[in-house]
From TrEMBL:
Segments crossing the lipid bilayer: 99-116, 123-145, 151-168, 175-192, 198-216, 228-252, 484-507, 519-541, 553-574
Domain of life: Bacteria
Identification of the protein by name: Glycosyltransferase RgtA/B/C/D-like domain-containing protein
Keywords: Membrane, Transmembrane, Transmembrane helix
Entry keyword Transmembrane: yes
Entry keyword Membrane: yes
Length: 588
């Protein structure tokens, strides 16, 4: 104890120490509150939770992603690796995911400290991102689902890129750790969700800008080494992707990270979406008429007819118009290919898709099939059409409002499926105990429904009510964000306009652009947020992908980054202007 007191007295910056202790206390409090969230056991989610859980269980047993099926390479493999890695540590999965997010918040503050060196601004920004409701909305954070983890990795990647940009011109050793962190977090993002390319424009453009700045600022070996460090993140992404693809090649015979990286699958799906069946439906990528036309010209596709039509696929067919809407068609297609016997391994499936694409494209060339113009396919989403433009713009504005207001965010847990047989593997893999049910052995003492564990040991009544009080507190925080954050977002947009005008005036007067880097960061982060929201809007319009907190969680974090950094930068600019005016007044 005397040693601790001595160290305390010798610490030169007592205020900084107090602030660090306070931030640590806030962080522990935040983790303690979110620990009240139970995991939702959803064995019935065969295309989401169950896939990740089964893959993680196979990795734990040393069998990579398990026996090959049509769903094995649909999802990125990294989240299953993350779940398996957490299993070996003995840490509960939900706690591990929250720790990852807390780490991302800390990295965010350290990254922007070079540009915003004011402790008060950094402390407030840390609290704002730490208690972001997107980080504990149950649909994204209390399931065996990849969205929250992927969003945390994307947050890390963007923060690391900003840190590198802020430190360009210094010795490369000062930002080499940031380059490593950028490479690993970017690889994790891209290998967790196959549609994570939205983060790449910021990373690529910022890296090129840093390379240009390095080229002109440095000479000789420092220049070469610094440029090499800038390339390092992309090398790491390539290496990580090659490792995943190599494991897939060894296990399933195809060197791909996931099926959406397979050119044969993309070509086959794009060809099906090009078929003009006579009536275009905006949210139906392949209409029934288009399928009938394809059966007539493609022997490969004709093999799938018994499985794509009739009652066998009724679960994926809309009852009103008998069409397969949105992304469900890709699941129908895979299921049909598997039923036809072409899913023995990834190589067999890929060969089938290659044959299907060749037959359809030959029919287009010969005129046997009518074709829409060739367009860009975006994963499972319908290819772009000009008619999507106006609805996408409208839905983008709605999605921004949805994101800014944290609509539908709630910390209250999702009710587990009543499938006790599935609980065992959930508990074994995730290190989480039990599931939750609506029923209660105790009297209802609150406005909300109390929760009781129905498997594992029974919790005491007081413990249940205390956890419920913690969830109620998080819900109050969420309500506070819903009311205050729209105002902060409007203020941040106003600050961005102010910074833009301030920068243009500085250019006109040929002043030193001290806050030019800050403006570029604000612009890059906002465009990243906007791109993510735009993809959501397009997905809703073209493929009926719902706009829900589970999918919006990555946009929540980028939005908070933009708001905190833009307002913080504006405060610095105003302080600088005030400090510049005061000496003039004293000299009068």
């Amino acid at each position: 104890m005397s040693y601790i007191r001595a160290c305390w007295k010798k610490y030169p910056d007592r205020k900084r120490l107090y602030l660090l202790v306070a931030m640590a206390a806030v962080t522990l409090f935040r983790l303690w509150m979110t620990a009240a969230q139970p995991i939702a056991f959803l064995p019935g989610q065969e295309d989401d939770d169950t896939v990740f859980l089964a893959h993680a269980a196979s990795i734990i047993r040393g069998h990579w992603l398990g026996v090959y099926t049509q769903n094995t390479l649909v999802k990125g493999a990294f989240y299953s690796l993350f779940v398996a890695g957490v299993h070996f540590t003995g840490i509960p999965l939900l706690l591990a995911q929250q720790l990852l997010y807390v780490f991302a918040c800390v990295i965010f503050i350290v990254a922007i400290r070079k540009l915003i060196p004011r402790r008060a601004i950094l402390a407030v920004s840390y609290c704002v991102v730490l208690f972001n409701p997107g980080s504990y909305t149950a649909t994204a954070t209390a399931r065996v689902i990849r969205d929250f983890t992927c969003a945390s990795f994307a947050f890390l990647a963007v923060s690391s890129m900003v840190a590198i940009y802020a430190r360009v011109g210094e010795r490369y050793t000062a930002w080499k750790p940031w380059a490593v962190l950028l490479g690993l977090s970017l690889a994790a993002t891209l290998l967790t969700r196959e549609d994570s390319a939205w983060v790449l424009p910021l990373i690529v453009v910022a890296s090129l800008l840093c390379a240009v700045m390095t080229f002109f600022k440095l000479r000789g070996k420092p220049r070469v080494k610094s440029l090499a460090v800038l390339v390092l993140p992309f090398v790491l992404v390539g290496v990580c992707s090659a490792v995943i693809a190599g494991a897939n090649a060894y296990a399933y015979g195809k060197f791909v990270t996931n099926e959406y990286a397979d050119a044969n699958f993309i070509n086959a799906y794009s060809a099906l979406c090009r078929i003009d069946g006579g009536k275009w439906m905006p949210n139906v990528p392949v209409t029934k008429a288009a399928r009938q036309a394809a059966y007539a010209v493609s022997p490969a596709f004709r093999e799938l007819e018994p499985y794509l039509e009739g009652q066998k696929m009724a679960i994926f067919v809309n009852a009103d118009d008998q069409e397969t809407h949105g992304t469900f068609f890709t699941w129908n297609l895979r299921n049909a290919v598997a039923a036809a016997g072409y899913c023995k391994n990834a190589a067999t499936a890929s060969a089938y898709y290659k044959r299907l694409a060749a037959e359809l494209n030959a029919a287009f060339d010969s005129g046997k099939l009518k074709s829409y113009p060739k367009t860009i396919s975006v994963g499972m989403l319908s290819p772009w059409r000009g008619a999507y433009l106006v609805p996408t713009v409208k839905k983008t504005l709605y999605a921004i409002w949805y994101d800014v207001t944290f609509k539908d965010c709630s910390p209250y847990p999702i009710i587990s499926d009543p499938m006790p047989a599935g609980d065992d593997i959930y508990q074994a893999v995730t290190n989480e105990v039990g599931s939750w049910d609506k029923t209660s052995d105790f009297a209802d003492t609150s406005k909300e429904t109390p929760f009781v564990r129905t498997s594992g040991y029974m919790l005491y009544q007081g413990a249940i009510r205390f956890n419920h009080q913690k969830l109620t507190f998080l819900n109050l925080v969420t309500i506070g964000y819903q009311k205050v954050f729209p105002i902060l977002f409007v203020i941040a947009c106003g600050c961005y306009v102010f910074l833009t005008v301030y920068l243009l005036v500085g250019l006109f007067r040929k002043r030193k652009l001290r806050f030019g880097p800050h403006w570029l960061v604000c612009t890059g982060v906002f465009l990243t947020f906007f791109l993510r929201v735009l993809i959501f809007a397009y997905g809703f319009v073209s493929s009926e992908v719902p706009i829900i907190p589970q999918y919006m969680v990555s946009a929540y974090f980028q939005m908070a980054f933009f708001v905190c950094f833009t307002i913080g930068t504006t405060i610095l600019v105003l302080r600088k202007r005030i400090e510049a005016v005061k000496p003039r007044e004293l000299t009068r």
